[in-house]
Fold this sequence. Notes:
The protein has about 140 residues and is mainly alpha-helical. The chain has one domain: Response regulator (Rossmann fold, 3-Layer(aba) Sandwich). The protein is built from 5 helices and 3 strands; from the N terminus they run H-H-E-H-E-H-E-H. It has a 3-stranded parallel sheet with strand order 1-2-3, covered by helices on one side. Helix 4 (about 95-105) links the parallel strand 2 and strand 3 (about 105-110). Helix 1 (about 5-20) packs across helix 5 (about 115-130) and helix 2 packs parallel to helix 3 (about 65-75). The longest helix is centred in the C-terminal third of the chain and has 18 residues, at about 115-130. It is globular and about 35 Å long. The relative contact order is 0.17.
Amino acid sequence: MAEDDEDDRILAKEALEECRLANNLHFVANGEELMDYLHHRGRYADSTTSPRPGLILLDLNMPKKDGREALKEIKSDAELRRIPIVVLTTSKAEEDIYRSYDLGATSYIAKPVTFDSLVEVMRVLGKYWFEIVELPSDRD
């Protein structure tokens, strides 16, 4: 999960734990860290502690490199473009929705306002992405 807001990271972690989906959850705070994680650079160099994600939850509004830039970079990379990316952000702006899909986002979800709603979103995401959908195997 790429999310710069510490409170949102905590809430997401708690919501995933509530759904019993918190296994192998990794957080980065901005788009630069996300790219370092995906390319195993710097503190993410060890692929055993920084494995290739099966799904990326991406906030759009982050410092250094925002989610839009990271999304574009990921979907332009032959090694990374198959990773599904769910934009999970506060923005409900049509421009952000259209641009995210144009850049290759798999889904776009406006962050729920209540914790119970967030738990439900995480439950549905987990069921869909980890029980229903067939994802390509990791080739690393």
